[in-house]
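Comment thread on ticket #2218

A.B. wrote:
> Attaching the input chain for the structure job we discussed in standup.
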Amino acid sequence: MVGKWRRRTRKSRKIRNKRFNVWRSRLSWYGLPLLGLVIGTWATLRFSLLAPEPPANPENICEIFREHTVWYDYARASEEKWGTPIATQLAFVYYESSFRSHARPPRTRLWGLIPWKRPTTAYGYAQALDPAWGEYLVANDASWRTVRTDMQYALDFVGWYNHLSNRQLGIPFSSPRQLYLAYHEGRGGYARRSYEQKPAIQSLAQRVQNRAFRYDTQLKQCEAEFQCWRWYQFWPFCKADN
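C.D. wrote:
> Ran it. Output below, let me know if you need it in another format.
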């Protein structure tokens, strides 16, 4: 009886091993390529094909939000969380990336001919540098889905950075020029007044402020359009502020 039991056990083990080898073979032939296809398709959709085109009329914030209405929701959420006005956030993105999701600084040229390294690690809508973005991810317990090419997180980053500039440097949210100088030069550079030796940066910061004020004036005329656009939003709970 013991011998029969052992033979039966060995036979059962051989059958299980055979089935396991068959499934392992099928997985190697079909499963892994299929998994790679699924991951590749997801990554393409997540980081490339679904990235919206820059707005057709970036000069008018009402037209920007009419074309990309969800951007209003992102900007409003960032304002409520961190304090930077919607118009200021959009002015930053206008001058940082021209609303291009995968924007990077152009590569330098080796010997004037060969494409070489990029001057900085700035990337995405907000042109966030690697160190600042890493600090943002840690400070906000962000997940792997938090990327610089997503307008939601780009605007949240702008709001978070300006919140720190307000708290640490005392820059009011009503001063886009000063906020942008701290954003461009870093809070340490701003504290050292490094921008005083950079007239081009001072001129850019003034243009950011002018655009922020112009966007704010425009937004006052159309903001009500974007506060009740979802099916579950209804008056008076999403009524425009007057």
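A.B. wrote:
> Thanks. Noting for the ticket: The beta strands are 109-110, 114-115.
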